[in-house]
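Before a computer can learn anything about folding, someone has to put a protein's shape into writing. The three-dimensional part falls to structure tokens, numbers that each stand for a local backbone shape. The protein below has been through that process, and both of its lines are reproduced in full.
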Amino acid sequence: MKNFLLLISALFITNIAAAQFTLKGKVTDLQGNPLAGVSVREKGTTHGTTTDNTGNYSFKCGSKNATIVFAFLGYISQEIPLSGRETLNATMEESQSSLSEVEVVGSRNLKRSVTDSPVPVDLIPVSKIANATGMVDINSVLQYAAPSFNANRQSGSDGADHIEPATLRGMGPDQTLVLINGKRRHQSSLVNLYGTRGRGNTGTDLNAIPSSSIERIEILRDGASAQYGSDAIAGVINIVLKQTVEQLDLNFTAGANSTGYGGSLESTSGKLLATEWDGQQYSGNANYGIKIGTQGGFFNITGDVDHKEKTSRPNYTSLYPDNYRAQFGDASYTNYALMLNSRVPLKKSSEFYFFGGFNKRNGDAFAWTREPESERNVISIYPNGFDPHIQSSISDYSASAGLRTIVGKWNADFNATYGRNRFEYDVDRTINASLETASPTNFEAGGFALGQLNLSANFTRSFDNSLNGLNLAWGVEYRNEQYKIFAGNEDSWKQYGPVIFSIDTTYDDAGEIASIDTTFRPGGSQGFPGFQPKDETNQTRNNIGGYIDAEFDITKNMLVAAAVRLENYSDFGFTANFKLATRIKVSDKINIRGSLSSGFRAPSLPQIYFSSTFTNVAAGKIVDQVIAPNNSQLAKEVGIPELKEEKSYNASLGFTLRPINELSFTVDGYWVKVQDRIVLTGLFGNDDDVIGPTLEQMNVGAAQFFTNAVDTRTIGLDVIAAYTTPIGTGNLNTTLAANFNDMQLDKVQTTAKLVGKEDIYFGPREKSFLLASAPPYKINLSFDYSIKRFNAFLRFNQFSGIDLTNWNDEVDRYSAKLTTDLSIGYKFNKYVNMTVGGNNIFDVYPSHHDPGLTESGGMWDAVQMGFSGAYFFGRLGFTF
């Protein structure tokens, strides 16, 4: 600590002695109009600012011989040497190049900026938010930066503890398409099943992409299946990777959670909890880029290591004495990531590009407690009972390469992208009770993998002399997907027996035996039974699609966009979708925009082929409890139809308003109707009066199925207001962002054979969890103030209340809560900066409920704000 303070003092003194000066200037476009929001920075340092609404800027610059970089979305970046000047003006030209710019999601017009888009697009500056909040994973950044985005940390939810399900506008995790640099990202191989949002859905593992490799994230909040294909029902998240060169960025973050429960809860010993710390997190990353040639070529590389310990939130024992889970909280993990991004000019009109990466995550999560006297425990192995650990080994890699060139008068992009996600389970500190004292305590439980290959050819062309501008785009795409399940070791799934644990005999008044109740030891590894050989599968499918996308500038003030897409899948067949959108410029201060579209989502391979078998003993007979594949004989015998695509209709209407230069509003309403949503049914037992005989005949004790069962309607509103004003010699940026959402369940459609079984097919509990994935509202109010070397960030997060149905079919109400984030940063010199702060600094928790009735087995289910309490952090950054 002493050496550290000496180092900081030396840096501080050095900084004061530095010959800094105030650089001023103004940035305009070619017509002389001021440009607001332009990034202006001293190259190779952290010195810089953005232009105000009059186009003016000023900041402390370290050298009169520095090079100043001007960058703005939709405009050509510039690097201008100061050459001794203290005032530097710049004129920026709109980008006309198809090769040097990454397209803005939602439009294939390479000249279109995000402010001209006929649909709402959010731009999220990831590195700035990560520095202000200490958040190092994408889900956490977006959870607070984009109100329509929701990611819930799980506990006791098997694989979902290790890959968080995330949603946009309350839709399913698999109804949002993720792109990297405009190219489709593969999904995770995990299908969410137990105790989780988005159950029955797959999704994309956003946290496999290191946030330190990202320049910005673009969120298209509108249906876009006609433009981008399957999964874009709710919208599109496009992750744009860094392109910086000749700059080394190093960041180190450390933080921890408070365990004080807001000073109101008691531990399992019945004593008031003192504030201690858990969930310790340590993160380090490095980013560096090198220049290739003189035509904008580069090679950028990012390395990232992130480690997080578990959090533990025991039950409030004075209210809930039954300790169903002695260990409840977030999982621990260690994450290693590498990301590359590059572009190599080949000649004046062509370039080769490549990006991709690798991510490895090892996780460890608590399962439910096994009591000492339970038939699931062996006293000689665990005298005090045990808490199984579900461990994960997740590997995720991707590579995308392509050629951008000119073919005739068309800008062409030929691309090949491949990605693969593999999820392996281990179960530790557990047993297979049917092996009794011979049981091992660690099991390899198998897992699954999903791969995706995309080949595409895309063409765009602008016709400046048609109307007031016409842009055409068209393309063809081919996709191949592969999915497999691999079995665990035999002792992770097998029932060795039946093995009797106890026999309970009751007698009548005459002393005769009235009944004999036999309890058998269960097989498989406790916490998570392994996949069996009968679960194994290796499946593939193909699809080919084509699209036409046009944008017409009817007048200078009116834009009309239209898109049509045709796709054919090798398993479920053909689909066609459309989109119409418009933007009308009422005045220089007001734009009105709206869209109407149809969409689809193909059933994922995991939804079609996922299989899980848990072997149990019932009345002395070994039977299977299964999640049956959609193509299985069992599904056919009980009348479950083949899965088909989800269909959607999406409409939006909104406006942008800038009444004064310093103030802007965007307001967008939306309506989304989804038909035939795919869900996981409830559990049908072999005592069911309709399909029970079929289950019993096939030696199945209970079964669940994936099926197109639900229609939903969602109505919502997104509101964003931003205000910039100078205070003293600094600038204050104020942002209000809100999402209001209402989802209604139109109907539950059972099969003909199961009419009247709606409460099992998709019952009240399942309905409440589906509706809770679309919270009524989330509102963020943030203040970002910078003055000289200091900056301060303050944010208020208002989470709405939600209702969930518990195991007693009663409503658990989670009331609305407000959390507060605060951080302060300081730039010591052009090389070093530091930020300290906290998220949820007042240690606010959700409403607590009886852990014996919640889905999670703890006092809280997975709700928006999480259940980890306050998090405090320090972050140290270096730029060379």
Remarks:
- The first strand starts at residue 21 and ends at 29.
- The chain has two domains: 21-94, 121-879.
- Residues 396 and 611 are 22 Å apart (CA to CA).
- The domain at 121-879 is CATH 2.40.170.20 (Maltoporin; Chain A).
